[in-house]
Amino acid sequence: MSNGQAEAQGINIYREGGLHAALKRSYALPGDRIEAPVGGYVADILRGDLCIEIQTGSFGALRAKLTALLAAQPVLVVYPVVAIKWIAVYDAAGEQLLRRRKSPRRGRTVELFSELVYLGELVAHPRLSFEVALVEVEELRCNDGQGSWRRQGVSISERRLLHVLSTQRFDDLASLAALLPAELGDPFTNRELAQRLGVGARLASKITYCLRQAGCLHLVGRAGRASLFSKHPAAIARVVKRSTQVRIMTLHPQGKQGVNIDQGKYDLVREAILTALHSADELGFGELMMQVERALGGALDGSVSWYVTTVKLDLEARGLIERLTGPGPQRLRLQQSRGPES
């Protein structure tokens, strides 16, 4: 494709990153439309009615675009994970190669979840698919004194695609859940998942968060301070129905009398509320209640609204969430930035 053809279809190719452009060329087939206008946005590749988006940056920047595109057609998001990286450092002029080495870090397919966390409920959209491309790249750096102090002033100028080593496509929720290790116990904690996968606790918590949003995992209780997750919805009912014989007195933000509530049920609703608010900047009370009800799968006996109201007031009193001021229905958000719990 010539520069003129690309510009005619709506792209400013001179602002496009090298890795993104190379992957787009790699994925494009004869007959595809490159940088095609669709629904007020520009699709990287349009193949029939399928939009293919190459996303080398944060998925958070893609959320609004995906919402618009998915309303009318299927979308495939291609996410490159660097499995092999060569680091080439040039002089300040960018002309003489000073040194070249291979990075010891090897990216893995499960790193997709580090970005899926920003899509929230969109992960479960039936028209949305993902493909991880494990790639070998060369990162060009310049010893110009303008870079991070961590790199002793060496700046990154470009990432070049050397090879696409392999790809793995995820067309449904079951294929995403299949990334969980077969030998993982049930129920399990984020710590146990991290150990089985050989990843950090932060990535493990993002994996369980995403799979819960997709309905593939369920919060079933706690082991000490750690959340317990299960792939089986019936496990929620088993945990809820089992008497913990431990009750707590909730708090009220206005200092009123709290409610004596079962510890196990409190923990389930508390975790569901915090997880729902983590996935959005803010939620109305009705939206929050529906998300909690969906997360718990109808396992609670009695009124879900009562449980959500009681625990919500307690979390407000504890300074974990806050009610927004202003006219209209009640809206809530996290008091401060909080990730999924370990």
Short description:
This protein is an alpha+beta fold and 342 residues long. Helices cover 30% and strands 28% of the residues. It is globular and about 75 Å long.
Q: Care to describe what's here?
A:
The radius of gyration is 24 Å and the shape is globular. It is an alpha+beta fold and 342 residues long. It has 2 domains: 3-177, no CATH class; 190-334, Winged helix-like DNA-binding domain superfamily/Winged helix DNA-binding domain (Arc Repressor Mutant, subunit A, Orthogonal Bundle), CATH 1.10.10.10. Helix 6 crosses helix 7 (201-213), helix 9 (263-278) packs across helix 10 and helix 9 packs across helix 11 (304-317). It starts with a helix and ends in an 8-residue tail after the last strand. A hairpin with a 2-residue loop joins strand 2 (41-47) and strand 3. The chain has 11 helices and 14 strands. Residues 1-15, 235-243 and 337-342 have low confidence and may be disordered. Helices cover 30% and strands 28% of the residues. The strands form 4 sheets. Strands 1, 2, 3, 4, 5, 6 and 7 form a 7-stranded mixed beta sheet that branches. A 3-stranded antiparallel beta sheet has the order 12-14-13. A two-stranded antiparallel ribbon has the order 8-9.
Topology:
Layout: H1 3-8, H2 18-27, E1 33-38, E2 41-47, E3 50-54, H3 63-70, E4 75-90, E5 97-102, H4 113-116, E6 128-142, E7 155-170, H5 173-177, H6 190-197, H7 201-213, E8 218-223, E9 226-230, H8 234-241, E10 247-249, E11 260-262, H9 263-278, E12 283-284, H10 285-296, H11 304-317, E13 321-323, E14 331-334
Parallel strand pairs: 3-4, 4-6
Antiparallel strand pairs: 1-2, 2-3, 4-5, 6-7, 8-9, 10-11, 12-14, 13-14
Helix pairs in contact: 6-7, 9-10, 9-11
